[in-house]
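Database export, one record per block. Field names are fixed; values are copied verbatim from the stored entry.
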Amino acid sequence: MSSFWEGKRVFVTGAFGFLGSWLSAELVSRKADVVALMLDSIPDSNLFRSGAAENVSIVKGDLVDYEGMLRIFNEFDIEYCFHLGAQPIVTVANRNPLSTFNSNIKGTWNILEAARNSKLLKGLVVASSDKVYGDNKNLPYREDFPLNASHPYDVSKTCTDVLSQSYFHTYGVPLAIARSGNFYGGGDINFDRLVPGTIKSLLRNEPPVIRSDGTFVRDYFYVKDAVGAFLALGENVQKKEIMGQAFNFGTENHYNVIEIVEKLIALSGKKLKPKILNHASNEIKAQYLDCSKAKRLLNWKSSTKIDAGMKETFKWYADFFASK
């Protein structure tokens, strides 16, 4: 394990969310001094459940408060920042775009401006998304594809991405951008998402519900592999060939919704059939990533096979609901 993070002062936005909780816990295990931004208390966050929250500095605040973000950078002498904080749910963004734009766009420019005015910052990793590429018949997506988002969540992440690029090119903020596939794994308590929602139904002996027609294709990216990707980007962000660049992170494999649900049904050992609603709208039919740039420049690639990741994920939720 790299000793890079030992003693580093690291600010994580979205620290109590899905990816942020795993990333913060891993930074703690690597002896970083972690400052975790918390908007609302989430008792079921994996950061609390893992016990790692006891070893971070928790600061209550909101990304839309610029002065609050600048205070954190300055008063905690932040050297590295992982900006993961966002409104992450596509269906919520479709219902309520303004709050999503406020969190995801204004929140990002506040972090970027605070970073620009920090005297100690060495590196900033910004979480973008594969959804910034929009609907493109040429797959897999490469980093040199145009950003062509159409729907509210996708557009908010495109703004995050382009704002970050502008702060690098104009002000030299030492940053890099992560465009990732669909995360899955234990600790995701947004049960509207496919994997946790399906497992929750199966554990309750209920048929899983599929909002779409089941043919939508995605890259399902295990959360522990995603943590490794983000840390690799942070460790290398100062390099000339990395700074200012965007990187795709995923498995380079893809599955449709029905295939994922069938894997989870098999793990449950139950004879349940999914209920297909075919109600999904404003979503892209197929998205998956070419990650050769990350392999070449970061010496990174995902390591968890889908069946192993789903098995570990199912066990996490079985233990989670049993403890409840």
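Remark 1: The CA atoms of residues 86 and 232 lie 21 Å apart.
Remark 2: The chain has a mean pLDDT of 95.
End of record.
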